[in-house]
Predict the structure.
Amino acid sequence: MADPPRKRRWPLYLAVFAVLLAFAAWWVDRQLEPTRLTATVLARAGAALGLELTIDGAPEYALRPEPRLVLPKLTVRQPGAAAPLLTAARAEISLPWDTITGGDSLVITRIALESPALSLAALADWQATRPEAPFELPTLTSGLRVEEGTVIGGDWRVQALQLELPELREGSPARIAADGVFTQAATTLDFDTTTALATAGLASDFEFAGTGRLRSDGLDVPWTLAADGRFDAGGETTQLAMAALTLASKSPVPDMDAKGQASFGEATRVNLQGTIKQWPEGWPVLPAPLSASTSPLAYTVAYEGAGDFSAPVALVVQREQTRFVGRFVVDDILRWLDAGETAPLPPLVGTLSTPSLEVSGATLEGVSIQIEEDAPAEPEPQE
């Protein structure tokens, strides 16, 4: 007696299912083959950003707990640009399936970069070509890590940069730890910092804490800096409101505190008020009776000009009834600090007024001293 039709069909169904399963396995393996998967991800990212993303070497991938790509010798460049925007000896990126398969979300699980180098000039050139669009912060569910990074900005750079960002979500708190070495000409600044944002995005309250060491020619001092306030980068200029800032160092760098506002855009504007705790030991000795006072020195600083602080800075300093109103240039002050005892007076221009001053054993009352720039040297006569 023949088997019922249903019983005879089940081997056929099983065979078809096996073929489909094999085809699906082949298709998935083909789509997830490292080179093909890498090309898909880099092409999608490059098209979205208007950049060329290339690698040199064989990529790797893993599927658990989700797709993870390892990219050797990554180069990111604006099409047609001579210099790359970013390079990295090794880049590791973990992506949710939704991101790979074409989802609209900007969710990335984790990014890890080894020996990356970022050019701020190339970054600015690329940003200038981008169409205006609402800012969208990517989500990094497991954060960002940078090892031995470099940031190049004009005549300065940051080297040996270590950066750790455990998590990044729009509107959620974020905490960034960074350490490295800032160099500009003969000045070196070692830093180890932590920045906490109340809400990740273009505007947030923040807290900053950092320590390190400042070296510049003959200067070699430690420093500790703490600050809190709020920033807003949502407009044409970045606004910074400083609720409190405290700097502790060693002479000739003064211990001081400050509060105020700053804005950064086409022009840089700074307005700070605060106190210098005490007259640093390495500064020139004040004449009596100023030298007898232990009161803090109240000051205000105002600046408007280029972002490199090359324009003059307005300064008002007051201790009790003694008051100085004048201006200075940052580079001139740094050179004076480096010069040590060879330059007895700081390079300031302005007016000093004080009720009394002792000079060579004589007491002068109602003193007002005008400090002017040195006259240019007279040319030597030609023989």
Residues 6-28, 375-383 have pLDDT under 50 and may be disordered.
